[in-house]
Design a protein that fits this description.
The chain is α/β, with parallel strands linked by helices. It has six helices and six strands, in the order αβααβββαβαβα. It has helices spanning 7-22, 44-48, 53-61, 96-106, 123-132, 144-150, and strands at residues 31-37, 64-66, 71-73, 84-88, 111-118, 135-139. Helix 4 runs parallel beside helix 5 (123-132). The longest helix is centred in the first third of the chain and has 16 residues, at 7-22. The chain is elongated and about 80 Å long.
Length: 151
């Protein structure tokens, strides 16, 4: 015996299927979590002092240096279509790293840049945030010149 489906129910299911297929698929690529190990005076604030830093970084990451033609080329890069999010430590209310985790879970394929000194006691939290949100942690370390002037 064959199950008969009411025409109105079938119409509704068909409309829901079309609507569902129109939704963007979830981006399952791993993201990037950029952090600065606790070295005060390494220039983080200089990097993020520009109010449109996210726009600048997005433009820079969407292009790559083409050494063959000695110019910038608009070609596919791993970060071309990813959202770049900058979190300034002084502007986040409440606990910083739980806030970062929440936002990373919402946009796990994003490039997240944390403008906050990440002291050794935060490294376990950074590891947890990276694991839970499928991010590759990327520490930014100053070069020897910067270290010699701040130590």
């Amino acid at each position: 015996s064959q199950v008969r489906i009411c025409p109105r129910v079938k119409e509704l299911v068909d409309k829901l299927t079309v609507a569902s297929n129109a939704l963007p698929s979830q981006d399952t690529r791993p993201g990037l979590l950029v952090f600065f190990p606790g070295i005060p005076g390494c220039g983080k604030s200089s990097l993020f002092g520009n109010s449109n830093i996210q726009e600048v970084l997005t433009k820079k990451c969407s292009k790559i240096w083409d050494s063959r033609n000695n110019n910038l080329a608009s070609i596919e890069t791993p970060f071309k279509d990813r959202q770049i999010i900058v979190f300034e430590g002084d502007k986040i209310e409440g606990k910083y790293w739980p806030h970062i985790l929440k936002r990373r879970l919402e946009q796990s394929s994003s490039v997240t840049i944390t403008d906050k000194n990440s002291t050794p006691n935060a490294w376990d939290i950074i590891k947890e945030v990276s694991e839970k949100s499928k991010a590759v942690p990327l520490p930014i370390l100053p070069d020897a010149t910067a270290l010699s002037t701040t130590m």
